[in-house]
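Progress against Task 2.4 (sequence-to-structure conversion) is shown through the following example record, which the project officer requested during the mid-term review.
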Amino acid sequence: MSGLAPGAAVARAHLRPGGWRVRGASRPAGPVGKVVAVCGVAGPEHFFANARQAGADIAEELVFGDHHAYTAGDLERIREAADGRPVVTTAKDAVKLADLDPELELWVLQQDVVIEEGAEALSAALDALLDRRPALEGGRVR
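Structure tokens generated for the chain above:
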């Protein structure tokens, strides 16, 4: 990785399962029984692994492309696959799916970012970026 940008700081991170949310409410445990997992992010296998680690018993995985714009047809496909079973998804996908059907019950896996290496370098880089942001005055950039 350092060959791409010699001298650049490198940080390594991963996502770990945090907890579950359903319609905005935190749940101590995940969904019960078999579930359908829906994911439209890069590296969906990581989401599925984290969902399993958090207790989801995945019967079927539905994978959509990263940054997928869900359609009514996609929602119908999800409903058919679920066939009454709970649907688990990412926070990013839940927002998009809820826009299509606010009544759809989605179990959302909250995921925590864990910095494995380079936390100090990452923090310094973020601080430098924040120091360079334009000052706000009355809601406007000056």
